[in-house]
C-alpha cells in the first residue's frame, strides 16, 4: 500500500508539473520544441512507475502457499490497496494520454517548421528564376 501511495503522489506531482508547463506557455510555436523534453521526462516517470507497479503485482504470484496468498489479498483489500492501485492505474492512463498529446504537439510544430522552410526555399528559387540569374 505504501508503494502505491508513493506512486500516486509521484504521478500527481508529475502531472501537476506538466499541466503547469502547458499553462505557462507550452503552446506557442517555438515553445513547443521544449515540449519534447517535458514529454520525455513524463514518459520516463511513466515507465518507471509502470515497471514498479508490475513488480509489486508479480510479487504476489511468487507466494507458493495458497493460504498466504489468500491472506495477503484479504489484508490488502481491508487496508485499501486496490483503491490506491486503481488510482495509480488511472493516473498512468492519464499520463499516457498526456504524453501522446505532447508528442503530437511537438510533431505538428516540427512539420510546420519544415513546411515553412520548403516554402521559403521555393520562393527564393522563384525569385532567382524570374530575375534570370542561375542559382
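Q: What amino acid sequence fits the structure above?
A:
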Amino acid at each position: 500500500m505504501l508503494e502505491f501511495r508513493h506512486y500516486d503522489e509521484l504521478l500527481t506531482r508529475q502531472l501537476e508539473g506538466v499541466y503547469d508547463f502547458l499553462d505557462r506557455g507550452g503552446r506557442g510555436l517555438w515553445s513547443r520544441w521544449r515540449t519534447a523534453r517535458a514529454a520525455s521526462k513524463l514518459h520516463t516517470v511513466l515507465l518507471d512507475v509502470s515497471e514498479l507497479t508490475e513488480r509489486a503485482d508479480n510479487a504476489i504470484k511468487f507466494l507458493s502457499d495458497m493460504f498466504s496468498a489468500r491472506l495477503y489479498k484479504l489484508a490488502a483489500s481491508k487496508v485499501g490497496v486496490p483503491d490506491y492501485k486503481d488510482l495509480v492505474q488511472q493516473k498512468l492512463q492519464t499520463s499516457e494520454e498526456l504524453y501522446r498529446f505532447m508528442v503530437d504537439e511537438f510533431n505538428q510544430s516540427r512539420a510546420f517548421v519544415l513546411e515553412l522552410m520548403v516554402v521559403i526555399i521555393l520562393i527564393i528559387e522563384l525569385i532567382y528564376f524570374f530575375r534570370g540569374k542561375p542559382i
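Q: And what stands out in the fold?
A: Residues 2-105 form one domain.
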